[in-house]
Amino acid sequence: MRISGGRVQPAAGARRVVAVTAIAGYGSETLTAVRPSFDEVYAAHYADLTVQLYAYFGDRQEAQDVVQEAFYRALVRWNSVAGYDDPVAWIRRVAWNLAVSRWRKARTSLSFLRKQRRIEPQAEGPDPDRVALVAALAALPAAHRRALVLHYLGDLPVAEIARREGVAAGTVKSWLHRGRAALATQLDLTDSTGGA
Amino acid sequence: MTDRFEELFADLRAETLPTVRPPGAATLRRAARRRQAALSSISAVVAVLMIAGLIGIVVRPGGGQSSFNQEAPEPEHYSQAVLAEKVAGFLNAGEEAMRSGKTFTYIGPEMVTSRHELLGGTYEMPVTCFGSGDVAVAVHTTAVGKSPISTTYDHPCVTQKLTTETLLTVPQPSGMVSVEVTGVGVEPGEAAFGYLLQLSQDDRIRYQKAAESVLPKQWHTMQSTFLDGADGAQLPVRPVEQVITVACVGFGSLTLTVGPVDENETFADRIDVPCTLTSPAKWELRYTPPGKSLRTTITPDRTAIGRSAAAVSIAEAG
């Protein structure tokens, strides 16, 4: 068997296409693997991930610091990360690892992007009603808050949250249940169907 | 009610998303280039902070020369054998510890995760990285049903001996420690990362006492040990039937052999003993030595090494 390959150098923002031709026996077959470009993933997922971290921290600045650090780490090893089954999952994992790290605030590396952001356009925050939700989340234990955010904003199933957190699925269900109950109380949500 | 929460979070996402304006990818790239260029000076700063103890980490530089004054425009590539030998040397660890594969990582740009189920207690965790570049380290400690406690830091990969020590607390009775390692600007073959997880002396003694507490109160000789490897003793006894009782606290299992003290180190009997975290049991052998001494040997299996304590008592039968 002989394998030959070629790469097309992408323009900024373009998809990188790696075509591999495998020649075996008398026949040949061309396999085309599409790898997402960093710019694409950054543009498509930066805001969504920032919203998740904002809901967790209750602080936009802190959320953006962490998300930018996660994307920086992806950028410097993009050749590898782009080849993963789910590069966004890798970035999300790094971001959440940074989020729960006690040492995060001690990292000098985060400040360099904060300086950059001063020249970026700033926008208004969310509606006050949504701020109430973020404030209510902030009052929850960190594990409950993480479970709610990953479930409702990260769209992660219970099993994946459990894997990420290193706990049983039943524990995550309990966190979600207790988190919802606490939110319902704080936000004064009436329950006509029974149970939060 | 569940639908109401989905609605609430969906609204939060919908209203917040348009307000998030990421810096352009080009800005991120420029910042990344500056950061990469500054890596060597960052390493120096990190080293100074560590030495000063400002971030709770102690660095033990060895070899006497600064590791941060070199310029390495082209990172050197090493064979895996060289990397393993260097890391083992930096940690003053035997090849056996490194061969286990759990405490040694050939790093590249991908995240590599190692998991360890450990006895509760305080652990000293010396870490080192040989080669070039930096490594991002995340250590997560999790007790069953609890949220992980995480610590992350960057560690420089250097060619002079540099060991960083951290203290790690594993909850009782046991917990899971996962170590995530990612090379920053490191390609395979350019660096290797290693660490040890060493239970504190106080905790070792605590587990030894737990094993001792299971043994009969009447004995002629008693010994206890933390199972870092095989351990043996030659004990003076009368040539009458002896009852040898053993207990093990922790993970895995051990094999106790008993026999005469002779040049061939033969054994007359053996027993396999499971180690348990809670409610350890005692196990018994009976042996009549031909002379005025006998020899016992405890051999832990791989899963018990560094994670179990055992106690053995000897008493005359009857």
From TrEMBL, chain A:
Q: What is this protein called?
A: RNA polymerase sigma-70 factor (ECF subfamily)
What sequence ranges are listed for the domain RNA polymerase sigma-70 region? 42-107
Which keywords does the record carry?
Answer: DNA-binding, Sigma factor, Transcription, Transcription regulation
Q: One GO BP annotation here?
A: DNA-templated transcription initiation
The UniProt family comment states: Belongs to the sigma-70 factor family. ECF subfamily.
The chain positions of domain RNA polymerase sigma factor 70 region 4 type read 131-183
Q: Which GO terms describe its molecular function?
A: DNA binding; sigma factor activity
Record bears the keyword Lipid biosynthesis: no
Q: Which domain of life is it from?
A: Bacteria
Q: Which InterPro entries match?
A: RNA_pol_sigma-70-like, RNA_pol_sigma-70_dom, RNA_pol_sigma70_r2, RNA_pol_sigma70_r4_t2, RNA_pol_sigma_r2, RNA_pol_sigma_r3/r4-like, WH-like_DNA-bd_sf
Q: Could you tell me which species this protein originates from?
A: Actinoplanes lutulentus
From TrEMBL, chain B:
Keyword entries, A-Z: Membrane, Transmembrane, Transmembrane helix
Where are its TM segments located? 37-59
What name goes with this protein? Uncharacterized protein
Organism (species):
Actinoplanes lutulentus
Q: The organism's lineage?
A: Bacteria, Bacillati, Actinomycetota, Actinomycetes, Micromonosporales
